[in-house]
What does this fold into?
Amino acid sequence: GIQVEQSPPDLILQEGANSTLRCNFSDSVNNLQWFHQNPWGQLINLFYIPSGTKQNGRLSATTVATERYSLLYISSSQTTDSGVYFCAVATNSGYALNFGKGTSLLVTP
Amino acid sequence: SAVISQKPSRDICQRGTSLTIQCQVDSQVTMMFWYRQQPGQSLTLIATANQGSEATYESGFVIDKFPISRPNLTFSTLTVSNMSPEDSSIYLCSAWTAQETQYFGPGTRLLVL
It folds into this structure.
């Protein structure tokens, strides 16, 4: 099956700092989504981005499908950004998502 | 977008018993899925819940252990049967929407003693 690798696995930031999270995948995809899992376990959909660039407030994402990677940018981080960020992809053969292991982010005051 | 609810939100069960988790979507969706998230781990797909037919299970998951029903386009259930402590996880329901985005329910936190 498709492999999804996320880096870094862990990240500690001071409030106000910027960060870039990376997701590499091993095959062509027809769906790529970024999720934030908050400390209460809720998965929040951040971006649907199989290709191109999108922005939503302090967050933006870029996927270069031909090179099989995606980046999630967090600017001016806040303590509420803490949690685990997952990249998940679906291949052309189906709709089910394959998740990476996530990046655990802690933003300190 | 889709709003997905799950019941129960959490439960503590004795080994050997079974628990049925309900998933309700606020609109009709074509595809629904069940995932498991073991403590400190990522999400793993259990099965695709097919409306009107048997679920499609991923490798390592079997119908006898995780029977799934999907009687209509907005509702599905997952049963965790003959539970053991290794089944302690968060179980999440998701739905694929017309906007080509997958949304997740809040999860069911299960602890098996």
